[in-house]
Amino acid sequence: NFTDLVSGRNTTSVIIKFENLSKMSDMPDIRIPLNENYTINLSNYFSGAESYSFKARNISYFIKDELMIFAPDEGFRGIRRGIITAKNKNDIIKSNSFRIGVSSGNIKTATSRSEIRIGERVKWVENVSSEDSEGAVLEIPAGARDVKVVGGAEPSLESGEDSLDVVLEPGEQAVEYYTDAPEASEKETEKGK
């Protein structure tokens, strides 16, 4: 409260503070045991968010306060990529793309790629080690070409919305594939090209 010197009236000022939305840290890859859920504390990864959403195939989510609970579809086993979106009145921030492995045994993955050059396809290698007796499903980009599995059977591919599923056997395997060549383009701006 303060007194307005011109009118002599007491006036109340209201200060509205908007908290900035920020990402605190990257999401790590996570593993969920088969037919179980997994919980994370969102305040470890975001600050200033008022709401959240999550996107990954075969994995639902629930939010309770600052906790996000991941619930894989019954019977699903495999590896999915997920992204969390945090929002407040002014901003939207997305997490990094992180892997979610669902299995009855341990699943380990390591990704490598060839050097990225304009006009040349990019070769990717996903090394997967699965202790799950049923094998696993690996999600790769929908535009992947020349997919082959080294150390396993001929790949069984299933199409998703924006990805391909490679059905893998138990054990160690490498999934090799290519993605389209990156392109360079120029665009006219106020200061030239």
What this model shows, in words?
This protein is mainly beta and 193 residues long. It contains no helices and 19 strands. It has strands at 2-3, 10-11, 22-23, 30-33, 38-41, 46-47, 51-55, 59-64, 67-72, 78-87, 92-94, 98-103, 107-113, 122-130, 136-141, 145-150, 156-159, 163-168, 171-179. The strands form six sheets. Strands 4, 7, 10, 11 and 12 form a five-stranded mixed sheet that branches. Strands 13-14-19-16 form a four-stranded antiparallel sheet, with no helix packed on it. A three-stranded antiparallel sheet has the order 5-9-8, with no helix packed on it.
What is the radius of gyration? 24 Å
Uncertain segments:
13-17
**Which structural class should the secondary elements be placed in?**
mainly beta
Distance between the termini: 55 Å
Please count the helical segments. 0
The percentage helix is under 10%
Mean pLDDT: 84
What's the total count of β strands? 19
Q: Beta-sheet strand percentage?
A: over 45%
H/E element sequence: EEEEEEEEEEEEEEEEEEE
**Large-scale geometry:** flat
